[in-house]
Amino acid sequence: MSTPSIDNIVENGARWLYTHWPQKNVINMEWCSVEHAKCPSYVCDYIENNWVKINTENGGTYQKPEIEKEKTFGTSIQNSNLYQGMDDANKKATDVMANEGMKAAVEHMLTDPDTKRPLSYSEMRSRYG
Q: Using CA atoms, how far apart are residues 67 and 79, in angstroms rounded to an integer?
């Protein structure tokens, strides 16, 4: 049996967490590794290597990085009925937030997609509401 690549651990760990604990922002590794949590070892590896360790008690407690919280929020919108009712411009901005975080989404919304010139606040509001 081969060892999974780092990319697979990150992708699969992130996917498992979003599927099972989408709103979880702080995780204690002792709790994560116990039987009742049913958290696969690759998810624990993902958390230890990609989240921020905030203390060392009980195997360590980890907090989801801010950009991951933003991506989770974007993904939750993508998976809601709200997304289906959006126009293409708002869907694209939501997609950017889900993939790259809030800063990238704001930069996207404040840039004209055709000319790449900066948009004023009022121009952005007229496009995105």
A: 18
Cβ-Cβ contacts under 8 Å for 115 (sequence gap 6 or more):
none
Q: 31-55: per-residue pLDDT in tens?
A: 877 655 678 888 888 888 989 999 9
The per-residue pLDDT for 1 is 44
Written as six digits, the tokens of 2 are 């081969």
Pair 82, 50: CB distance under 8 Å: no
On whether residue 121 sits in a domain, the answer given is: yes
Overall average pLDDT of the 66-84 stretch? 85
Domain residues for the domain of 38 are 6-64
- The phi and psi torsions of 37 (rounded to 5 degrees) equal -75, -25
C-alpha–C-alpha distance, residues 127 and 117, integer Å = 14
Alpha carbon separation from 94 to 53, 72, 119, 120 (Å, rounded): 29, 11, 18, 20
Give domain status of residue 49, yes or no.
Answer: yes
| pTM for the structure as a whole | 0.59
